[in-house]
């Protein structure tokens, strides 16, 4: 207990190894020439560099061959609960990876999800309605009672543009319309109420008052608000239509604007659109819409076509030919999408009655391959399916895949990117074209078609990985396709987590 360490007594005569020193070992070497000793410092090996021997030794030390593992010992695995599934863990990642590999090794796969056209991913749009702070909304409502008229005008305009049709917002704007004595403030409150779907008598009368204003800008501003409100009203089912105050007076003033103004004027056109929403059988509105079909303004022309086909249900050879012309020659891709949707709305029966079936078929077949925008090709594919001519189009496209001309094969592959693949033979034909086709452009289009359709298949991945290791345009396209396969949306990941099971 005195603090000195007691050494064990050596009773067997075994030599105790001397204590290792951390200092370098000094070795004395005799010089043959002078006979004087020369000191040579040799660094000693660190204790961390000495190989560690574990006891007992592993049986693998005496093995002469490596056994082949053919049996996996069964074990009990704890089933995770729902909260733990949301957390990433290496064990679950390993199981998911093994499951994916097993699915990819299956030679038989279903092509049912590739028969329909591939839908383009929708961009995430930022909406003020979803992200607006409630305190900000309360502040805008409080600004309506501000002593500064500029703040009041700003608050009224902002509440209308946000489109939040809550009772607190409507009541605050309605009180401002009734109690405020400022004419500009009353107009902004009425305009915002119309945008929010409130077409009360006092609101409509205030808008009619400004329709009679001599200012062109004020008329256009009023008509734009009315057009938005009446369009939303006309799209609701008839049983859910809400009451529009001073409707007869509004129709009368709109008719006056259409008759007094130039038929090709913007005010006259917007007034005719509002008339069409209020009364689809109005002759003045119908004549104005037909008059706009001969204009060069593509925006007014597509608006007139939508009004005639969808709202007024008027279809004749002039309307159908104008829709075809818009699909072929409109400089804006959105108008070409609208034209394709209008053909689907018209229907095959009416097109056949007018004797324009072959013309429509040829235009749709041409747009499937020559249209530069994918969203337009997808809209055309939807129209082809709605008109029940998809089987005929498929047969033509499959024949074009075997054509001797490179350009025709390329167009056929582009068309399949929107139409989809209906059987395994066609899939393996495309896979063979990716490997053996003599034209590089055709092979590039095959890669893009697989990427567009989302065909994350073992055969496709193997071919793409092999070509991605080379150089050139084809290698870059293959790399992009593989990246698109690896990208999984957050909703799909969440779905995979919730549906995860351990077998």
What does the secondary structure layout of this molecule look like, with pairings?
Layout: E1 25-30, E2 37-42, H1 82-85, H2 90-104, H3 112-115, H4 128-131, H5 134-143, H6 149-162, H7 167-179, H8 183-195, H9 201-211, H10 216-235, H11 247-260, H12 266-278, H13 283-292, H14 298-311, H15 317-329, H16 333-346, H17 348-353, H18 357-370, H19 374-386, H20 390-400, H21 406-419, H22 424-436, H23 440-453, H24 458-468, H25 473-486, H26 490-498
Antiparallel strand pairs: 1-2
| Amino-to-carboxy terminus distance | 63 Å
Radius of gyration from the CA trace?
39 Å
Number of DSSP strands? 2
How are the strands ordered across the major sheet? 1-2
Write down the secondary-structure element order: EEHHHHHHHHHHHHHHHHHHHHHHHHHH
Question: What would you say about this model in short?
Answer:
The protein has 503 residues and is an all-alpha fold. Helices cover 61% and strands 2% of the residues. The two termini are 63 Å apart.
Describe the structure.
With 503 residues, the chain is mostly helical. The protein contains 26 helices and two strands. The protein has helices at 82-85, 90-104, 112-115, 128-131, 134-143, 149-162, 167-179, 183-195, 201-211, 216-235, 247-260, 266-278, 283-292, 298-311, 317-329, 333-346, 348-353, 357-370, 374-386, 390-400, 406-419, 424-436, 440-453, 458-468, 473-486, 490-498; strands at 25-30, 37-42. A two-stranded antiparallel ribbon has the order 1-2. Helix 18 crosses helix 21 (406-419). The longest helix has 20 residues, at 216-235. It is flat and about 100 Å long. The model is unreliable at 19-29, 116-130 and 495-503 (pLDDT under 50).
